[in-house]
Every structure is written in structure tokens, then in C-alpha cells.
């Protein structure tokens, strides 16, 4: 019950600060753009939209929310209640996941995009949002203010997005397979490209490994810098 209440509180907080309006506007605009594109360009455009914008927005927004809460002393106040740290973090993750995935599916349905590999696509969209959100939380835990967060997070965000060059066939290297974003791009693109089962399974395994690594790091940083600040 505490987790559900925390998720509800985060959704209200996001709504109050305009995040839902931003996603609504972007969703409508992207549906219009995709509907106007030639059929051959719809799937690649959808992949790029989800990867660079819809799923990645959580990377920036979650940091802003955490810093807003810290600035209003809300985060510290929460930890004197029965709410546990993992529930606080899960609420952040689930609320952004709901927002991103709802937008992603509305864009997909609005553009009449589908295919037989839909399950792989859904997993890729979910994990892409989770990975980006966790990266955002990792940097938000130690950030002193919004500018500090964006300077550090933007550099890492650009770094982990480098596999986009391989997707665009501009530059590729085996090193990109270490990045979680290479795996998300493969799964987001399965509706348009015939990837092998090994590529799909590798992508799933890669994202799960990164998810557990980032989850542990996020908890450790929030425990040290937010719940028990020096």
C-alpha cells in the first residue's frame, strides 16, 4: 500500500509540474509526423523517436524531480515516515515508466505500427525507459543543483547514446555491444528489421544485467547521499 501511495504521489507531482502536458503534446506531434511520412520511413522514425525522446525524457525529468524534492526538503521528510528507500525509488521508476510507455504505445497505435515481434518491442520500450531513468537517478543522487545535474547527466546521456551511429549505419564497433542502448535499439527496431534470435536474446540479457547493476548503484547512492547525507 505504501508503494501504491508513493506512486500516486509521484504521478500527482509530475502532473502538477507539467510533465503530463509535455508528453501529451509530444505524443500528438509525433503521431502527426509519423502519419505524414512514407510507409518505408515510419518504422525507423518510430525507433528514433522512442529512443531519443519518449524513453529518454525520463533521464532528464527524474533528475529534475529529485532535485525539486530535495530543494523543498521533501525527500528527507519522506524518510522519517514508514516509507522505505526502495519504495521511494520504485515509485519514481514506475511513475515514469507509466508515463513513457503510455506515450510510446499511443504513438505506435496512432501511426498504425505493429508486427509479429511486438513482445520483443514492448520489452525493449520498457527496458529503455528503465535504463534511462536509473541512469538519471544515479546522477541525481549526488547533484547539488539542476545545472550540476544536467552538465553531468548530459555528458553520460550522449555517451550511452553512441550506438545510434551503428543504427544509422554511420559507424559501428563491437564496443557498442557493451552499451545498454545498443540492446534497446535492437529491440525497438524489431518491428522493421529481421534480427536473429541470438541478437534478441543477447539484447534481453544485456538489458537485464544493466538493470540490476544500475538498480544496485542507484540504491547505494541514494542511501549515502539522500537518506543519510553527510
Question: Would you mind describing this structure in some detail?
Answer:
The chain is mainly α and 230 residues long. It has one domain. It has helices at 2-16, 19-36, 39-54, 57-71, 74-78, 85-110, 118-140, 146-160, 164-167, 180-188, 197-227. The model has no long low-confidence stretch (mean pLDDT 84).
Tally of alpha and pi helices:
11
N- to C-terminal separation?
Answer: 31 Å
Number of domains: 1
State which percent range the strand residues make up: under 5%
Task: Give unreliable regions as ranges.
Answer: none
Please report the total strand number as a whole number.
0
What topology does this entry show?
Elements: H1 2-16, H2 19-36, H3 39-54, H4 57-71, H5 74-78, H6 85-110, H7 118-140, H8 146-160, H9 164-167, H10 180-188, H11 197-227
Helix pairs in contact: 1-6, 2-3, 2-6, 3-10, 4-7, 4-8, 6-7, 7-8, 7-10, 7-11, 10-11
Quick structural summary:
By secondary structure, this protein is an all-alpha fold. 77% of the residues lie in helices and 0% in strands.
List the main descriptive attributes of the protein structure presented here.
single chain; 230 residues; mainly alpha
Amino acid at each position: 500500500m505504501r508503494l501504491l501511495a508513493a506512486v500516486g504521489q509521484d504521478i500527482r507531482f509530475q502532473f502538477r509540474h507539467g510533465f503530463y502536458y509535455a508528453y501529451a503534446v509530444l505524443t500528438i506531434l509525433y503521431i502527426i509526423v509519423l502519419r505524414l511520412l512514407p510507409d518505408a520511413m515510419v518504422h525507423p522514425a518510430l525507433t528514433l523517436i522512442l529512443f531519443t525522446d519518449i524513453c529518454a525524457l525520463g533521464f532528464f525529468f527524474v533528475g529534475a524531480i529529485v532535485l525539486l524534492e530535495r530543494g523543498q526538503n521533501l525527500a528527507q521528510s519522506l524518510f522519517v515516515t514508514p516509507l522505505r528507500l526502495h519504495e521511494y525509488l520504485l515509485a519514481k521508476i514506475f511513475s515514469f515508466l507509466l508515463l513513457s510507455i503510455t506515450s510510446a504505445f499511443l504513438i505506435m497505435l496512432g501511426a498504425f505500427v505493429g508486427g509479429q515481434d511486438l513482445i520483443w518491442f514492448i520489452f525493449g520500450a520498457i527496458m529503455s525507459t528503465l535504463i534511462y531513468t536509473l541512469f538519471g537517478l544515479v546522477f541525481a543522487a549526488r547533484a547539488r543543483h539542476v545545472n550540476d545535474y544536467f552538465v553531468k547527466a548530459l555528458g553520460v546521456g550522449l555517451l550511452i547514446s553512441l550506438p545510434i551511429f551503428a543504427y544509422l549505419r554511420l559507424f559501428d564497433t563491437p564496443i557498442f555491444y557493451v552499451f545498454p542502448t545498443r540492446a534497446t535499439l535492437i529491440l525497438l527496431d524489431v518491428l522493421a528489421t529481421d534480427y536473429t534470435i541470438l541478437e534478441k536474446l543477447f539484447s534481453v540479457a544485456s538489458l537485464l544485467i544493466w538493470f540490476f547493476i544500475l538498480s544496485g548503484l542507484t540504491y547505494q547512492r541514494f542511501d549515502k547521499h539522500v537518506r543519510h547525507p553527510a
